[in-house]
TrEMBL record:
Positions of transmembrane segments: 47-64, 129-146
InterPro entries: DUF6653
Pfam families cross-referenced by the UniProt entry: DUF6653
Protein known as: DUF4395 domain-containing protein
Lineage of the organism: Bacteria, Pseudomonadati, Pseudomonadota, Alphaproteobacteria, Hyphomicrobiales
Length: 168
């Protein structure tokens, strides 16, 4: 199983959940999760095992977030298009996407994943610069990936002859 499909499966994302996740509030309230998780793990220095409370809260929020907001009134927002593009990306085996988008998305996903290495190292040895660098790079590459997904939505809806609201 591909890792992206495994993550989607773990998140239990059905059509209704994806529709709610397309709300820009859902998107933008997920953006700081990695930085907050980094801070929560780092807080073990100050609060010991109590750091597991904010870590558990953030993990719960990560799962609950796509379900927390209503479907948006329209799908013309950049964040909505990024979420819709991610659905195109995940369905690329059944509905092929343009090669340039597939290649870019894969490269950005790998770079985002590799950025977790300095983050993990920084958290392990308590190196604030490594942790900060890793978290910032992972977040930057993830947002760049989302920008590509918004672009993918534009291209796919144009090529399929439908608007973003009919996508999925």
């Amino acid at each position: 199983m591909r890792i992206d499909k495994a993550i989607e499966s773990t998140m239990a994302m059905d059509d209704a959940t994806w529709a709610r996740h397309a709300n820009p509030l859902s998107f933008w309230t997920r953006v700081p999760i990695l930085l907050l998780l980094t801070l929560a793990i780092w807080s073990r220095v100050w609060i010991g095992w109590w750091c597991l409370v904010p870590v558990a809260g953030l993990i719960a929020w990560t799962f609950f977030n796509p379900r927390a907001f209503p479907p948006p009134p329209h799908l013309n927002d950049w964040a909505s298009k990024a979420v819709l593009g991610e659905r195109f990306w995940l369905a690329r085996k059944t509905t092929p996407i343009p090669t340039h988008h597939a290649r870019s998305a894969l490269v950005l996903s790998v770079l985002s994943g590799l950025s977790l290495l300095p983050l993990a190292y920084g958290l392990w040895v308590l190196d604030p610069w490594a942790a900060f660098l890793g978290a910032m790079l992972a977040s930057m590459f993830k947002l760049w990936f989302c920008d590509r997904m918004a672009w993918l939505t534009e291209d796919m809806t144009r090529s399929l002859g439908r608007d973003a609201a009919q996508q999925t």
